[in-house]
Specification:
This protein is α+β, with helices and mostly antiparallel strands. Helices cover about 45% and strands about 15% of the residues. Strand 1 and strand 2 form a beta hairpin.
Length: about 70
């Protein structure tokens, strides 16, 4: 089964049924970036400042901070 989403072709694994795209827009956040974010949080840098400095999304950062507590 193939469907179009955001102009990218979706694929479905025949073994597990998982859907995916060959070139995803969002890449996993690198461990080095997570460590930098941890240090910036300890320095009480604003979340908006951390988003600007690291390039992560505000939504992901909120989720990450929530998970840390």
């Amino acid at each position: 089964m193939v469907a179009l989403s955001d102009g990218k072709q979706n694929f479905k694994c025949r073994d597990c049924g998982r859907q995916f795209v060959m070139t995803p827009r969002h890449q996993p956040i690198a461990e080095a970036t997570k460590k930098l974010i941890d240090r910036l949080l300890l320095e009480k840098i604003s979340l908006a400042g951390i988003v600007r400095a690291t390039g992560v999304s505000e939504r992901w950062l909120q989720y990450y901070v929530f998970r840390k507590n």
